[in-house]
Automatic annotation (TrEMBL):
<feature type="binding site">
    <location>
        <position position="26"/>
    </location>
    <ligand>
        <name>3-phosphoshikimate</name>
    </ligand>
</feature>
<feature type="domain" description="Enolpyruvate transferase">
    <location>
        <begin position="12"/>
        <end position="425"/>
    </location>
</feature>
<feature type="binding site">
    <location>
        <position position="127"/>
    </location>
    <ligand>
        <name>phosphoenolpyruvate</name>
    </ligand>
</feature>
<dbReference type="Pfam" id="PF00275">
    <property type="entry name" value="EPSP_synthase"/>
</dbReference>
<keyword id="KW-0057">Aromatic amino acid biosynthesis</keyword>
<protein>
    <recommendedName>
        <fullName>3-phosphoshikimate 1-carboxyvinyltransferase</fullName>
        <ecNumber>2.5.1.19</ecNumber>
    </recommendedName>
</protein>
<dbReference type="GO" id="GO:0003866">
    <property type="term" value="F:3-phosphoshikimate 1-carboxyvinyltransferase activity"/>
</dbReference>
<comment type="function">
    <text>Catalyzes the transfer of the enolpyruvyl moiety of phosphoenolpyruvate (PEP) to the 5-hydroxyl of shikimate-3-phosphate (S3P) to produce enolpyruvyl shikimate-3-phosphate and inorganic phosphate.</text>
</comment>
<keyword id="KW-0963">Cytoplasm</keyword>
<dbReference type="InterPro" id="IPR006264">
    <property type="entry name" value="EPSP_synthase"/>
</dbReference>
<feature type="binding site">
    <location>
        <position position="174"/>
    </location>
    <ligand>
        <name>phosphoenolpyruvate</name>
    </ligand>
</feature>
<feature type="binding site">
    <location>
        <position position="347"/>
    </location>
    <ligand>
        <name>3-phosphoshikimate</name>
    </ligand>
</feature>
<feature type="binding site">
    <location>
        <position position="174"/>
    </location>
    <ligand>
        <name>3-phosphoshikimate</name>
    </ligand>
</feature>
<dbReference type="InterPro" id="IPR023193">
    <property type="entry name" value="EPSP_synthase_CS"/>
</dbReference>
<feature type="binding site">
    <location>
        <position position="392"/>
    </location>
    <ligand>
        <name>phosphoenolpyruvate</name>
    </ligand>
</feature>
<comment type="similarity">
    <text>Belongs to the EPSP synthase family.</text>
</comment>
<feature type="binding site">
    <location>
        <position position="26"/>
    </location>
    <ligand>
        <name>phosphoenolpyruvate</name>
    </ligand>
</feature>
Length: 442
C-alpha cells in the first residue's frame, strides 16, 4: 500500500488506562543487526523492532550474504560473517524510510572491497547525506550522491580508509556512528567530538561486541584492526514510541497508564524532563538494567500542563519527541517556546512545518520560527490534518485528536509501520479511539 493511502480518525477519548509494552527500540535494533552481522559467531537478538526501517536493515545484510533467522516475532538469530565477510549485493540496497539505516550503512560500506548503492523512499531521498559523505571522504571513502548531496548514494569499494579526528558540526548520532563504523576498518585512530552528547548506542554496543573503544559524553575514540565477537542483545522498549502515550495520558483527564520496560538512556529522555517542567505526573518504577541499558516502567497520570520555554540543552535528548511535545504544548495552559531545533526540518519530514499545519488545522495558534515554534496552548477542535507521511507526526496528531472537540482525520499514516507496528492495537487497548478511516489502494 502506498504511504499516502491510509487515513486515520482520532476521536475524543475518556481516561486512558492499562499497562502496555511498546515495541523495541529502533536505534538499538538497527545497530544490533549490523554489529551481529559483522561479528564472528552467532548472536541472538530479542525484542527486535519488527518495523519497516529495521527490517530493511536486516534485509540489507541478507543481500550481502548474512544468514538471519527469525525464530519468532521480535527475535533474530544472526550468523555473523566477520568484519571482512560481507559479499557484494546483487542489487541496490533499499533503506526505505530509514535515515539511520542509510547513514550507518554508508559508513561501513565505504570500507568494503565491493561497490554498493543505497536508495530510499521519497522522504529519505530528500534527506541530507553530505553530513556523512564529507567526513567519510576525509577518511578516504569515495561516495557519490545526487545534486545537493541527496540519495541515492553510490559507494565505491576498495578504498583504504585512514582514521581521522572529526568535530561534528551538528549533534548527530547517525553521523558519529557512520564515522565510527568506517573507523573499524581504518588505519590508525578515529575520534569524534560532538557539540552536544548524543545517543551512545554505537559506542556501548561496540564495547559489548568486544571492540576496544574509549568514550565519554561527547567524545569517542577507537582504532581499526580488531574483531567483533558475537553476543546476545536484549532490546528495551523504545522511549520514542512510549512518548505518544506519555503525552496522551498527561492530557486526557483521569488517565493512568503504565509503560513497561522502557529504555531510559539519558540521551533519549529529554521529553520526560520537558513534560515534568510542564507539570506532568510521570514516575519511574522498577528501575533496572536490561541488556546493559537502563530501563524502567513509566507510570503516567493525567495532570494539567502549563507552557514552558523548552531548555535548549534538552533538544538533542528529545530530538525525535518534538511532534509529541508540540501536542502537549497545544493542550497546555499558556505559551511554549521551542528554540534551537532546526534539525527538525530535515527529519522524515519538515516536522516544524508539518506539526504547525496540522495543529493550526485543529485551531491551535502556532507561529513557526526557523529553529522551532511558539505554541499557544488552548482548546483544539475537530478538523483534518496531514502527517505528510511522517510516522511520528501521524501518531502525535492522533494524540491531539483525543482532546479535540470532535473527530480529527489524519492523512498519510501508513509510515507508522516504519517504527511502531501495532500502534492502533496498543492505543485501543488503553482506551484511545484511533482507527483507520479509509484504506484506498494507491
Ligand atoms: C538516530 C539518531 C537521531 C534520531 C534518529 C535515530 C540513531 O538522528 O533522530 O531517529 O539511531 O542514531 P540524528 O543523529 O541525525 O540526529
Amino acid at each position: 500500500m502506498s504511504g499516502s493511502s491510509l487515513t486515520w480518525t482520532s476521536e475524543p477519548a475518556g481516561p486512558l488506562q492499562g499497562a502496555i509494552r511498546v515495541p523495541g527500540d529502533k536505534s538499538i535494533s538497527h545497530r544490533a543487526v549490523m554489529f551481529a552481522a559483522l561479528a564472528d559467531g552467532v548472536s541472538h537478538i530479542r525484542g527486535f523492532l519488527e518495523g519497516e526501517d529495521t527490517r530493511a536493515t536486516a534485509r540489507a545484510f541478507s543481500q550481502m550474504g548474512v544468514r538471519i533467522d527469525r525464530p519468532s516475532d521480535s527475535e533474530r538469530i544472526v550468523h555473523g560473517v566477520g568484519l571482512h565477510g560481507l559479499s557484494a549485493p546483487a542489487s541496490a540496497i533499499d533503506c526505505g524510510n530509514a535515515g539511520t539505516g542509510m547513514r550507518l550503512l554508508a559508513g561501513l560500506l565505504s570500507a568494503q572491497s565491493f561497490d554498493s548503492r543505497l536508495v530510499g523512499d521519497e522522504s529519505l531521498s530528500r534527506r541530507p547525506m553530505r553530513r556523512v559523505i564529507e567526513p567519510l571522504a576525509r577518511m578516504g571513502a569515495r561516495i557519490s550522491a545526487e545534486e545537493g548531496g541527496l540519495p541515492p548514494l553510490r559507494i565505491h569499494g576498495g578504498q583504504r580508509l585512514r582514521g581521522i579526528e572529526y568535530a561534528l558540526p551538528v549533534a548527530s548520532a547517525q553521523v558519529k556512528s557512520a564515522v565510527l563504523l568506517a573507523g573499524l576498518y581504518a588505519s590508525g585512530e578515529t575520534q569524534v567530538i560532538e557539540p552536544h552528547p548524543t545517543r551512545d548506542y554505537t559506542e556501548r554496543m561496540l564495547a559489548a561486541f568486544g571492540w576496544p573503544i574509549t568514550f565519554s559524553e561527547g567524545h569517542a575514540r577507537l582504532s581499526g584492526g580488531h574483531r567483533l565477537q558475537a553476543t546476545d542483545v536484549v532490546v528495551p522498549a523504545d522511549f520514542s514510541s512510549a512518548a505518544f502515550f506519555l503525552v496522551a495520558a498527561s492530557i486526557v483527564p483521569g488517565s493512568d497508564v503504565l509503560l513497561t520496560d522502557v529504555g531510559l538512556n539519558p540521551r533519549r529522555t529529554g521529553l520526560l524532563e520537558a513534560l515534568r517542567l510542564m507539570g506532568a505526573s510521570i514516575s519511574v518504577e522498577n528501575p533496572r538494567t536490561l541488556g546493559g541499558e537502563s530501563v524502567g516502567d513509566l507510570r503516567v497520570r493525567y495532570s494539567p500542563l502549563r507552557g514552558i520555554d523548552v531548555p535548549v540543552a534538552l533538544v538533542p535528548d528529545m530530538i525525535d519527541e518534538f511532534p509529541a511535545l508540540f501536542v502537549a504544548a497545544a493542550a497546555a495552559r499558556g505559551t511554549t517556546r521551542v528554540t534551537g531545533a532546526a534539525e527538525l526540518r530535515v527529519k522524515e519530514s519538515d516536522r516544524i512545518a508539518v506539526m504547525a499545519r496540522g495543529l493550526r488545522a485543529l485551531g491551535c495558534a502556532l507561529t513557526e520560527t526557523d529553529d522551532g515554534a511558539i505554541i499557544e496552548g488552548g482548546r483544539l477542535h475537530a478538523g483534518s490534518a496531514d502527517s505528510a507521511g511522517d510516522h511520528r507526526c501521524a501518531m502525535s496528531l492522533a494524540v491531539a485528536g483525543l482532546v479535540a472537540g470532535g473527530p480529527v482525520t489524519i492523512a498519510d499514516c501508513a509510515n507508522v509501520a516504519t517504527s511502531f507496528p501495532g500502534f492502533l492495537e496498543l492505543a485501543a487497548r488503553c482506551g484511545m479511539r484511533v482507527g483507520e478511516a479509509a484504506a484506498v489502494a494507491g
